[in-house]
Amino acid sequence: MSLLSWTLLLCAAFLAGAVNSVAGGGTLLTFPTLLSAGISPIVANATSTVALVPGSLGAFFGYGDERKAAQEELLTLGLPSVVGGVLGALLVMRLGDRSFARLVPFLLYGATALFLVQPLVKRALERRTTKLPRFALPLFQLLVATYGGFFGAGIGILMLAAMGIVLAGASIHRLNAFKNLAAATINGVAAITFALSHRVLWPVAGAMAVAALLGGFLGAGIAKRLGERIVRGFVVCVGIAIATYMLVRR
After folding, report:
1. What is the pLDDT along the chain (250 residues), one digit of tens a residue?
2. Whose CA is closest to 149, among 191, 190, 108, 182?
3. Range of the domain at 196
4. Contact 145/134 with Cβ under 8 angstroms?
5. DSSP-assigned letters across all residues of 179-197
6. What are the contacts of 139-142 at 24+ separation with CB within 8 A?
7. For the chain, what is the domain count?
């Protein structure tokens, strides 16, 4: 790859780390940038997944007391996250680059829409008074994890919505700790599946992982000063623009 491609990839990963620390949606920045560098869709998806795993794990360990409570949910969320993450990764590889490429614009539109409604879901969770049976959570988590292993963008808001309904009364911070633990698990097992199938560009994934970690650590302050609304608006605009461009190009 050219120096320009490397620069764009590292900048996208840095921004993704900063955005994920405030609002989520980093995949909407890293995945299209990998595609623009001439990387095939499935390899780009796999490499983006690997690159962003450390950020999810780091976010989980940053929650302190909420982290301890989330660890108690490991069995509830862990098994369906592992099974779904592997199934989704196997499914996208089975689909093949050509078919996956046809789905990419619509996946980006869907992920952008989920990202856009995230504040509404958060406010609804804060007002929740009813909850569903406990067994509903692992069933829904299996579906979300399968989608997460397949593509991944937007799984955070899906998990927040499900956990908020089932675990009524839990604070939003505790739910975020749950979400980050499950996201790290889903992306981690999907990354292992992709790696075993030789679909990861390791030099690129490693460099982007470092940039994403730096972005989460250094860029979070800037992102917080800008405010979640501006950060969210930026990511939504990028997601819509890239999805539209890819749809027209196709």
Report:
1. 788 999 999 999 988 887 776 656 778 889 889 988 989 989 999 999 888 887 766 665 655 555 555 555 666 778 898 999 999 999 999 988 888 888 888 887 887 787 777 677 667 656 665 556 667 778 888 988 898 888 877 777 777 777 766 665 566 666 666 777 788 788 889 989 999 999 999 999 999 999 988 887 776 566 667 766 776 677 778 778 777 877 776 6
2. 190
3. 3-249
4. no
5. HHHHHHHHHHHHHHHHHHT
6. 139/80, 140/166, 141/76, 141/77, 141/80, 141/81, 141/84, 141/182, 142/80, 142/83, 142/84
7. 1
| Residue 126 CB-density burial (10 A; 0-12 exposed, 13-18 middle, 19+ buried) | exposed
What lies within 8 Å, CB to CB, of 50 at 6+ separation is 187, 191, 194, 195, 200, 202, 205, 209
Amino acid letter, 209? A
- Phi and psi at 73, nearest 5°, equal -90, 10
Q: Which of 166, 239, 184, 229 is nearest to 74 (CA)?
A: 184
Do 76 and 138 form a contact (C-beta atoms < 8 A)?
yes
Is there a contact between 116 and 66 (Cβ–Cβ < 8 Å)? no
Kindly list the distances between the CA atom of residue 153 and the CA atoms of 39, 187, 226, in Å, as whole numbers in the listed order: 18, 11, 23
Do the beta carbons of residue 115 and residue 28 sit within 8 Å? yes
